[in-house]
Amino acid sequence: MTQTPLELFGTESLIGDEDRAIRDTVRTFVDRRIRPELAAWFEAGEVPARELAKELGGLGLLGMHLEGYGCAGTSATAYGLACLELEAADSGIRSLVSVQGSLAMYAIWRWGTEEHKQEWLPRMAAGAAVGCFGLTEPDFGSNPAGMRTRARRDGDDWVLTGTKMWITNGSVADVAVVWAQTDPDAGARGIRGFVVPTDTPGFSAPAIKRKLSLRASVTSELVLEDVRLPASALMPEAIGLRGPLSCLDEARFGIVFGSLGAARDCLETAIAYTRDREIFDKPLAAYQLSQAKLADMTLELGKGMLLALHLGRLKDEGRLRPEQVSLGKLNNVREAIAIARESRTLLGAAGITLEHPVLRHANNLESVLTYEGTSEVHQLVIGKALTGEDAFR
């Protein structure tokens, strides 16, 4: 009798009934709606993001771990497991959900005014409105404090000017959460966040094309040319980098689980392929080198899952710290991309085609390895926690 990789670790016993039911609902949706289309979406570099947002909203997956305003209010662990199932399909699909819920919606939910919440969150939870999150700039990724986007006061209004880059959902979004430097004499104290309807004059979001990764995802530039906003657009409680970094921690948590979904899909594909593929008159799975590779990949997948579930419990208890999120993101994405690459070797030439998901996952994970904090950034976060020394400069 054979066992799946995670059955060997017995992780199912660590998941509660309600969380398991949510996970299974997402898995069924992914198998029915997403998987049959993925190869075509990836090859074309296009995805029906707004259509999918409505379907995902109908399942209660958008902002699912938030309370109120039409959000489902699930556990953090359930949200993580949903991300795992979505990314088992494709990192781009999980990105759509995590940017909507953990970046744009969370920013409004945590830092916005009651008016912001009432105006946007119910529609975003339903998928009727799509959001994006504008922090990264062409010259400032790992160092967001250096951003050049500026917000200046003009009477009672704010005027935003600048450019953001690598923005998921940007060109299909109805609302953008944009972070900008404010002038010292504006009385706003450094970096501040603004809720920006994308139909505001001066706002544009040209799509980024010719990508080799996350092709089943909308990625855009945001261009703000004297975008005039009322004073009410400012999120009053978000002062300095604390605001955007808190949102990034939410998104990174989803990646801790999500990356394992890509890894699991690659490993299960490799196991199935090696059992069916015959070489020198016996299955490829019957060779010692094949089994060694499968065993090593299973070990890393299982360890990553145990870490993710532990971090999920800490988050549900309100005890999860940012440096612990860095542990999960660094380990699980690093191991996921290694599993994707190793799985490809077992598939041989068949592994480079869209008939199988492994190289698509590997390409996507190249982006996941970089966004929401590069591996080097997370190493330094962990290093600071261990030594007390800040080595970022």
Structural description of this entry:
By secondary structure, this protein is an alpha+beta fold. It has 3 domains: 5-130, Butyryl-Coa Dehydrogenase, subunit A, domain 1; 132-240, Butyryl-CoA Dehydrogenase, subunit A, domain 2 (Beta Barrel); 243-387, Butyryl-CoA Dehydrogenase, subunit A, domain 3, CATH 1.20.140. It is 53% helix and 15% strand. It has helices spanning 5-9, 17-44, 49-58, 76-89, 91-111, 114-126, 242-276, 288-316, 322-347, 358-370, 375-387, and strands at 131-134, 150-154, 157-168, 175-182, 191-197, 203-204, 219-229, 234-239, 278-279, 282-283. Strands 1, 2, 3, 4, 5, 6, 7 and 8 form an 8-stranded mixed beta sheet that branches. Strand 2 and strand 3 (157-168) form a beta hairpin. Helix 5 packs antiparallel against helix 6, helix 9 (322-347) packs antiparallel against helix 10 and helix 9 (322-347) packs across helix 11 (375-387). The longest helix has 35 residues, at 242-276. 49% of the residues are buried.
Alpha-carbon distance between the termini? 54 Å
Helix share, percent: 40-55%
Give average pLDDT, whole number.
Answer: 96
Q: In this structure, how is the largest beta sheet organized?
A: 8 strands, mixed
Named at the architecture level, the CATH assignment of the largest domain is: Up-down Bundle
Q: Unreliable segments (pLDDT under 50, ≥5 consecutive)?
A: none
Number of helices: 11
Silhouette: globular
Whole-number total of structural domains:
3
- Beta percentage is 15-25%
Q: Measured on Cα atoms, how large is the radius of gyration?
A: 21 Å
Task: Note the quaternary state here.
Answer: single chain
What is the CATH domain class of the largest domain?
Mainly Alpha
- The name CATH uses for the topology of the largest domain is Butyryl-CoA Dehydrogenase, subunit A, domain 3
Report the CATH superfamily of the largest domain.
Butyryl-CoA Dehydrogenase, subunit A, domain 3
